[in-house]
């Protein structure tokens, strides 16, 4: 009944893994720090799919640096899979001829150089992904040969403590641990007695090799926003958001993007939100990195729970002291989990609100601009309507325009932008630069962050466009133009149309919402500086040096 | 700066957990089997949110039975969260007045009784969810107080081996383990020496209590389909699927629903698929339970990888012997993970194909019928277009109807149904019974399994409607009618319209696809019985007794 006659080998990966590990000629799982380059050369083969934990906050930086020291005559054409391209080494490995192909999600700090290397032909891009899309492919068509991750501590059996910054580690690692790939973890500390591990985040049998890094891994306080930089305009937009969106739809569960706009909202909850009588009624359950600007809202009793994608430098003690709010382990320290938090933010959150760099006339948006292939990160996971959601909340049902027996709700996807970016660059544009970037890079489609059909609300300093109420694409465009300020798109708005849209409630200006613009000043913020946040936290928040200005 | 003056307690959950566990007056984590009822009464409090691992295959049945023995005077008004309502005890606990509210995903075997209890007012339903939607809420607004799970084995520290049927366990358990909930695991075996655990799937510090169950947990071979029951009509539909959908769009990665239709496709790969020259070109990477009917395709070299939601009884040895295909641990046994596989199926699979019970004229479908609140399970997670996907494949790009710079691809969502169900009940209906069920049960929306706008292809014994090509809802309805046979919906089809649709390639009948219907017989199947599957597997597949008919 079988086709062919030769006995097929069904455990090639396992045999190869065993052979590679045997090349190390060592007992146990611990690679001596000074041997890391030789060890990587022994176990990594040309063409391998290698996952490198470039994470949003936490970086497997020692392994990234070591990878760059491999001999490209021995190890080359690697296919790198890096969630977040955060370090120069993530690209050095291409320049040095060790790696060839790249699949990634986000390349914030390295976006310019990624574009350049792509243009120079030094790297080939598989695809740009969203976070959970990239993790997903590790289990389907991008199953890794080697996974390189970072943890705080390990014992000699390979049990890992990943602590507050667990982040992507479990999702990356499981794909190799359970498909005969090789898992190598860099750790800040190796303990002899397993009992000295604060807790086990990853069981030792999932990890093949550990190495103590030359210095603790790099971690970036990526989600800390200094309240000093919040402008009156952000306050105005925050007040509009709270009254015209959060309060109107009674948003219970939500995710905030990163930025001064959403930081302003967080700092308005204990002041303007309190004044609106919304405490205990909205913003109870969060999918959020531990934003320091959320501290005043937490301390004022607004927040029931926060599940986090990652940790945040300086917030460790505060989170450990607020276990009713944050997810913490039996040891008392926080646990984050990006895969689960992205899943939770997609399926269990009523609203996503975030910023972007460019929006076109129809409402498509992107943060990819000319020369900067910045990628997607997690925003499109949060910033779309998940069609696999079935439970109803008031906010979700509010988005139904025409009741019908087969209608369904819609996630609130709010784009909150100032009409102009820095250097007087308009946010609203005829064509997204992403379209040209795609053409230049030979990408099959433009890298659009959030598609127009997913966006329900657009908020600018001019007002709110309730896009989910649009009757047609034509009307949708008019609604966008109505709040697009003096950009070319905005100047197209016909005052009569705008008036009609305001009267029908499809567009609301601050006065329509009963908001007195003169009150929109920084004095409305519950904290005006990092020092204020430290005070709110009772001294538990310990901001990194670069945020200490007092 | 603080509002209020009383010092707030921020670790209520942790204090309460400690107090509850102290009530047990025992050393260590092991609850003696005979003490389980008293132990549950000690740690569970009225009104608690209790997750019970009712899983697709694996059941925490000992804990479910024990829960039913609690004294409702002491423990009542529980809010049960049960992914899959599979056992009578899942509902007994409501009848006995111990539980009051229910959130669930799927209630296959208990769907009739769920409806009855709801009607009788004996239970209140929070919401009916899809699987990852339910897991998501455990981290946001349904954070559990107690989680009850099942594993094969534990050591005395609480390290768990969940083995081939890991399924939901990690996703359910993490929500309590990291938010001061109580985790209790029933296990078939407790080993004294941690080294006697095959591997650790869940670290001991995540688990508070373990109990050896009175008998091994119940596990159901839910995804085994006997080839004997595949009819010629299924073969015909399978041939159309392979030629008209799989081959046409070059589908690489996919998920199959459960049923004889998709089992037929699996068994046609080594025969008709081979004839079409598609081996190595399609169906390489699967998100799938370990369907025994996939064995011939695996043995014939069609399948590169299978990541699984759960295990399948009888497939253990076969999977362990095929580690290049299945995900297995360092110990050699399979690892499944429903949360990750649902995520992978959503974001990394080109296609979902599955069956349903009712489809309306627009293409909405549901398996909820009068008197049967069967829930959703995972089909809507797979069977929708994930707007957070950004990587392109041929199949995904094929769904773009009008090229534009801001276009995006679409997942192939294929509904494969016979025009009539058993007892001559039409599949195509004017109104889904789900609409009436929702009204009767006071649900805010009808429980629709897959919404019309997500469906790209409809396949019946009559032909294929390429719904993604429809220009309008009007045309879409005509396309559906064209393949709806002699149902009322189908009889509406105007022969001239059908002819036009066939000529434009929007509808294809077998002859349009060059398929000779006379060849569509069971003789095309690579295996015609369970015994054939055992033979294909070289004796590694060990079917459960109920499937052994030889």
TrEMBL record, chains A, B:
InterPro entries: MadA, NagB/RpiA_transferase-like. It comes from the Bacteria. GO terms for molecular function: transferase activity. Pfam families: Mal_decarbox_Al. SUPFAM superfamilies: NagB/RpiA/CoA transferase-like. This is Malonate decarboxylase subunit alpha. It comes from Turicimonas muris.
